[in-house]
Amino acid sequence: MREEDFIVSTTDLKGRITYGNRIFVEFSGYAEEELLGAQHNIIRHPDMPRGVFKLLWDTVQAGNECFAYVKNLAKDGSFYWVFANVTPLFDGDGRIEGYFSVRRKPAPQALAAVGELYRQMLEEEKRAGVRDAIAASTALLQKTLSDKGMSYDEFILSI
Question: Quick one: fold of 7-158?
Answer without folding.
Answer: Beta-Lactamase (3.30.450)
